[in-house]
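Chapter summary example.
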Amino acid sequence: MVHTEKSSGASVPRIVIVGAGFAGFRTARTLSRVLAGQRADIVLLNPTDYFLYLPLLPQVAAGILEPRRVTVSLTHALPRVRLVLGEAGAIDLIGRRVDYTDPEGRHRNLTYDRLVIAVGSVNKLLPVPGVAEYAHGFRGMPEALYLRDHITRQTELAAVAEDDREREARSTFVVVGAGYTGTEVAAQGQLLTDALHARTTRANQPGGHGQARRSPEVRPRWLLLDVAPRVLPELDRRLSDTADRVLRGRGVEVRTGTSVKEATAAGVWLDDGAFVPTRTLVWCVGVRPDPLVEALGLPVERGRVRVTPRLNLPGHPEVFACGDAAAVPDLTRPLPGHGGTDGHGGTDFALTPMTAQHASRQGDVAARNVAASLGHGQAGPYRHHDLGFAVDLGGVQAAANPLGVPLSGPLAGAVTRGYHLAAMPGNRVRVAADWLLDAVLPRQAVQLGLVRSWSVPLDSASPELARVPGSPQRREPTKE
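The structure predicted for these 480 residues follows.
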């Protein structure tokens, strides 16, 4: 039996926003402000009760920030928005209904007058043997918590291993994908394992807690792989060069033009024929739109549903899409040989990249256009020029190009952290306090054991949720 929550009537329009990532959160926040004082039922459907500030997730995995620092309560941040906890399973565009499964496995429906699809993205999969079984992604809090425990556990086990081959494998960490996420994971991870190694080595030295089993020269080894010719291939060359220099100087083995051919329980085979013994494979090759998008049965481009510059779905003016789920034409980048006058999400323009910067601003535009469709304000197209990027490389190191000005070193580090504090919708003081404590105190490196390997599979449509025994999986609700 399916419970259907119907709209409260034509006089009170219901706006359903699916997803509370950067695009969905900003849509809900802006819409609640634009429609303040107006009668409207704004509903935010999301599997968790928090907004995750994804750019700082590598710092959670590295033990710099506590998990709650990068999560913001949706009910606290969006007081005029009604939060519905659940995972969307299907959208009926004809019946104007969203089917979802609540946290207790019950199938429910939400009808809508306006719909905003902002379901975001999940880990990108490639047909590489063994990867789905032995690799883990980095798109949600459970994966970050698992990696934090896993790195600590491998370092501690390596410190007491008597077999040289086992010690080498447990001390080797492989990250595939040298984009924004992979670069930061490798940079932060190297600093964490160096600190853990120094601590366990001191503890095992004569005069410590026991006899040394491990040579101080056997240090943690990090490899960052990518088929591209350089790290951060999608960003400015100067940012790429800065990141490459910092990583190599720290001891990270950066191997461009290289990827994984096969993953096994004992390690990974690279496409150049080399075998790397390891117990850790972090998959950061990119993202793909949430599978819900393709299930709509509408035209897609690179897996993203096509929308107009005003973020409408063609043929469905009451439905909007934004963020990683939407193929939004970038009006600032007309394609060579085209007039750039199509205006319907065609091929006259390049697509906006799948970044938080674009998702946030698309959320603002979607909110204003939804309000305009209800008679409040005027609709307009999405148009935004990149303001630059910032990559935190751990410690005081970073690479940034705010407004196109290339920066590196401590200055870039200050700009990067300042940008994150300004962009976060909450917890700024707590994040700054954690940064200060990390600068003056050693990190608390312990295994909590809350997230196990099997609960964060790479092939998951819900990286924000850890799988638990008997947990409901996304599926089509049973009809009455």
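To summarize the output: Confidence is low (pLDDT under 50) at residues 209-216, 342-346, 474-480.
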